[in-house]
Amino acid sequence: MGREQWKKILVGSAGNMVEWFDWFVYASFATYFAGAFFPDGNPTAQLMNTAGIFAVGFFMRPVGGWLLGRVGDRKGRKAALTLTVTLMSASAVLIAIAPTYAVAGYGGAVVLLVARLLQGLSVGGEYAASATYLTEASDPSRRGFASSFQYVSMTAGQIVGLGLQIVLQRTMSDGALHSWGWRIPFIVGALGAAVIFYLRRNMLETDVYEESADDAGADQKGTIKALWAHRREAFLVMALTMGGTVAYYTYTTYLTKYLSNSAGLSKETATLVSFCALIVFACIQPLAGRLSDRIGRRPLLITFAVGSTFLTVPIMTMLKHAGSFWPALGLALLALVVVTGYTSINACVKAELFPTGIRALGVALPYAIANALFGGTAEYVALWFKDAGAESGFYWYVAGCAAVSLIVYLTMRETRDIDLNRVAVPAPGAAQRPAEAV
């Protein structure tokens, strides 16, 4: 990989990191600000309210996927990436200044909701824009390696957020964190987004996109009509996302709450477990991505699905009774190693299914729909099972989602050797895409 390719990947990843820092900070600091926007009462009920607003952000992701995916296909990947970080910066500012329940009643919750809607729009387009950009910017023989940096940067954003949380936990009193300290990470996120906005304005467009600029049918780029011609691949993206997104959000955003709210660990210990596990998780993404460049995408996806289907219940059960830092860390690492089979390569697998003129929208919309249905609701479903006194039901839910995706992985074709410049477009009225990209 040449210098220019590395530059594109690093700039794209840096922006992705800030996007996901803002996105995940909401989840990781929810235990501190949940009581600020809702009346005093059951802590689990307060968390369910904030988790519900978290899920609402996911339901805006299909809208963001459609809007920003269209921008990415018609105006370029750079334009879409610049717009996403602008929306994310605005949402971070809103959360940072949102009034509490004591000051404005439910008005603060409304501001929080608006901010999450903006975040949903932003992240709905960010995933596809960055997945497409990283895949197209890389050498064809290293697409798995290059695209793995999407989850490196996503995880790095969460690591920075958790690291900041650890610092604040050790330098501020618990009362101060619940009172106003939780606003600090959102201020940091807004400042970081401003820096990335500058960087993205000067980033380079991908050669693959520029080479397609004069292709016939430019008026169909990024349209629902064009996506409908690739509906088989769109449904494939939804199905292969289902198990991976539920498992990912279970062992990342929900893990800290689960360890403190169910396993009985202190908030500080739970945060440290997540922080250490995510550092290892981020480091192994490029290794798994490079492995997929050698042996293919399907072996890693199948390994993830088999492991998640059969290990989720025992891992979650043992995590609940871990009791201390080291057992909890070991189990969290085992779970995240399994999830790596999906996270390290899912970006390039999806991008490899579509031609250039519909690639951003083709990845964005079906992925966002799957995340709205399964990823965004994972934490809420987990808390619902807990509130109903049947927490183990959530373990089986995660395993079941992975089992569905396993069927898809076993039946889909390999995408590693597909030429992004030659993914065929169906003739008008064609029902299906050619088999080479399925």
UniProtKB/TrEMBL annotation:
GO terms for cellular component: plasma membrane. The keyword Cell membrane applies. GO terms for molecular function: symporter activity. It is found in: Cell membrane. Residues 8-416 form the Major facilitator superfamily (MFS) profile domain. It is a multi-pass membrane protein. Keywords: Cell membrane, Membrane, Symport, Transmembrane, Transmembrane helix, Transport. Pfam families: MFS_1. Belongs to the major facilitator superfamily. Metabolite:H+ Symporter (MHS) family (TC 2.A.1.6) family. May be a proton symporter involved in the uptake of osmolytes such as proline and glycine betaine. This is Putative proline/betaine transporter. It comes from Streptomyces antnestii.
